[in-house]
Amino acid sequence: MFSKTVATLRPSPIQVMAERTRQAQQAGHSVVDMTLGEPDFPTPEHIGEAAMRAIAEGQTRYTAINGTVQLREAIVRKLLRENGLIYTPADISVGCGGKQVIYQAFLATLNPGDEVLIPAPYWASYADIVSMNGGTLRPLLTSPETGYALQPETLEAAITLRTKWLVLNSPSNPSGTAYTAGQLLRFAEVLRKSANQRFFILVDDIYEHILYDGRKPATLASVAPDLAPRILTVNGVSKAYSMTGWRVGYACGPRALIEAMTKIQMQINSHTSSVSQAAAVAALDGPQDEVARRCGIFQARRDFLLQQFAAIDGLRTPTPEGAFYLFPDVRAFIGRTTPNGSKVDDDVALAAYLLEQGVAVVPGSGFGMPGFLRLSYATSDAQLALAADRMAVALGALQ
What we know:
Blueprint: H1 4-8, H2 13-26, E1 32-33, H3 45-56, H4 69-83, E2 92-95, H5 97-109, E3 115-120, H6 124-132, E4 136-141, H7 152-158, E5 163-169, H8 181-193, E6 200-204, H9 220-223, E7 231-236, E8 249-252, H10 255-266, H11 274-285, H12 289-310, E9 325-326, H13 347-356, E10 359-360, E11 362-363, E12 373-376, H14 381-396
Parallel strand pairs: 1-10, 3-4, 3-5, 5-6, 6-7
Antiparallel strand pairs: 2-8, 7-8, 9-12, 11-12
Helix pairs in contact: 3-11, 4-11, 5-6, 5-10, 7-8, 12-14
């Protein structure tokens, strides 16, 4: 009855755990929800006011497929001001969130047999978007010892004539790994000398403003401008400006690729909300001090959890450089037994056990790394303290 594509799709591990959490909470259980990657702050006031003005002024009709001129011009200004990148509005594609932009890029380019290289752990949706569009995922393994950072030699060994895309997400969901300009330059050296010079590089910068310890954003097209004709830089307003529900993502890159993506979007949803686009202009052109303030709060939350987790025997948690996730190594707890006699066979079982103990997390197997967990700390200090206490007790009870 249904297509082969639908039959191969797996439920999002993030949404699966989020739904189980909602069910547990509705049943009256106290659960600290650390599943969703969504800032717990409201959208800044001036952005909401811009949206209301847009409605009052009648900006509620169809827009250009690839976004209003006003928004694409704001994106051009942002890219120049913050990233040193020079693009024109014709080089920009605006969609309903970064996910749609990525989907359209893969749909426009992938054929059966094409390979997509993605460092693991990776955002769970990458894998399914690749498979939905006929591609083959080639995970590039990383380790907690290197902070989950891709190594240049691993990248070099993985590139073949079948490679169609390399995906670099920095800071990363789920690991929080953020690449410096120096690290990106080493990747660029590998890319320049590769026998395959025909594949694209997707640079997902959606978390670029959530960086810690004084780090500055670095993006591949800026540090290696000679590679820009092959780079699609993806970003959006969801994470930095707490606008997840507004659904505005964008990409800049090779004109021919942008035009192909726009042709696809024409037949999918025409464009994202005109009101959301007006709000995104206000986000990009408006004051940025609140973004920096919230980043400081996220860093304090990270530091608190790292301190608490360091006291839990067997839990190894690399320090993330950005985003708002921890990705602890929990392999020491696999194979143990819960107080009620159940065996913890894998990270999925461990996540289920922790949910029973009042902490909702996502198993790392959904991100391409079994034996790990992803925890979002985009929640209140009080909830994080409660989660740390519950995890210490729950993990300490495993035999």
